[in-house]
Structures are given as C-alpha cells and as structure tokens.
Design brief:
With 115 residues, the chain is of the alpha+beta class. It has a two-stranded antiparallel ribbon. Helix 1 packs antiparallel against helix 2. It is rod-shaped, with a radius of gyration of 41 Å.
C-alpha cells in the first residue's frame, strides 16, 4: 500500500513539474512592402515571461515531494539494531612466583591476570 501511495505521489509530482506557462501566438496580417509609402514600425512591446516562476514552482514541488516520499520510505518498518558488544575483560598485572627453567629454582615475575 505504501509503495502504491509513493508511486502515485511521484507520478503526480513528475507530471506537474513539467507544466510551464506558454504564451499565445499572435497572428498578424501580412502585407507586401510598399516602397513609396512604408508602413509605420510596429509598437514596441514589453513582454513579461513568467517561465522562471513556473520552473521555480516545479523545482519546489519536486523538492517537497522528494522530502515527503523520503519520509514515507524511511519509516517503512522495524530495523535491526546490533546489540552492544560485551564489556572487555578486566585485566591487570600481578607479581607471582614462577619456576625458573634453567636451574630449577623460583623467581618473581609480573604476570597478566584477566577475569
């Protein structure tokens, strides 16, 4: 069910982000040029292009949709968490009497003891 919702949201975002504002075409009357009496120049028009707003809106919708989709996918179920490692062994050094291998006697030596 979650994958269906995610795919519907993704398709909706992709479809709406591709839409842009398109200006209408202007059809003008075509005339042959009159060399003795040329027509006046066309008036200068200031055109406003709102394509930047449409692109920015599409990008914002894509970012917001990506955040929502990522949040849905991220909370998709339980996760396995590793248990903490066992505590390290407690070790220390003690002075102990050990047998001497050369003359059969004993001597003191620091020995590592762990529990």
């Amino acid at each position: 069910m979650k994958k269906l919702v995610l795919s519907v949201v993704t398709v909706a975002i992709a479809a709406t982000s591709g839409l842009t504002v398109i200006d209408t075409a202007s059809a003008q009357e075509w005339r042959r040029p009159y060399y003795d009496n040329p027509p006046p120049p066309p008036p200068r028009r200031h055109h406003h292009h709102d394509n930047g707003a449409a692109i920015a809106g599409g990008l914002a919708a894509g970012v917001i949709g990506g955040l929502i989709g990522g949040a849905i996918v991220n909370n998709s179920g339980p996760r396995y968490i590793d248990p903490p490692p066992p505590p390290p062994p407690r070790c220390w050094f003690e002075d102990r009497r050990v047998p001497n291998a050369y003359d059969g006697g004993w001597h003191m030596e620091s020995v590592r003891v762990c529990r």
